[in-house]
Amino acid sequence: MVIFLGIISAIVVVANIIVRAQGASWLALILKTLCGVLFMALGIYGVLTPSLNPEVFPVVSFGVLMLIGMAFGWIGDVVLALKDMRQNVYDMMLAAGILLFGIGHVFYIVALVRTYQTPLPWIPIVISLVFGVGVVLICAKCHFKFGVFKWPAVIYAALVTMLPATTFFTLATGTFPLDAAGQTILQPTVVVAISGVWFLISDMILAWAYFGPKPNRGWQHALCYIFYYAAQFGIATSLVLL
User: Structural domain tally of the chain?
Assistant: First the structure.
């Protein structure tokens, strides 16, 4: 089942990247929506068929929080796809998409901190806020035009940075359960950490596509999708590893 969903997801992702590179369309919207459905299905399958002992690892609570985060990302995907086809409400839908993605990342972070009892979680939060402000200031110097989205961009950049920052900080300081063989259960968290980095890269490219000096190039969206879907697949895979 996992292999089947993985293959179908890869085919749909490639098709979506090719179609979206040619511009916004209803076909691109349908393919983007289907990508989210397949990733959600993969994650749900992982939570429903865990290999880890629920008495050792909180599969349900961790999985549900991660799935909620994925769901917000999926809805955000659809909203951002629709904005390109509804120019009269472009700014409103862009703001809604940013908000939905941000909420999704909050659920990812809560799942990590709650599951692994991350000590001093404010440290990655501070690092992320500094990074978010720094990125937006540097982009402004590079002639990015954020307009009314300047402060939302700061908050969102901090949230997106917070996922890899919190995950790597958790890997270094968190409390990890042991499997039946006495080995530390690290695989799901490592995959989330890598996915967090890919999310960060994809959103930096997306900011370039939306607000940069030469925005909305087809190849910018294609490159963004490559990293974004790799991140989404990674999040779903982390649940398959439970």
Answer: 1
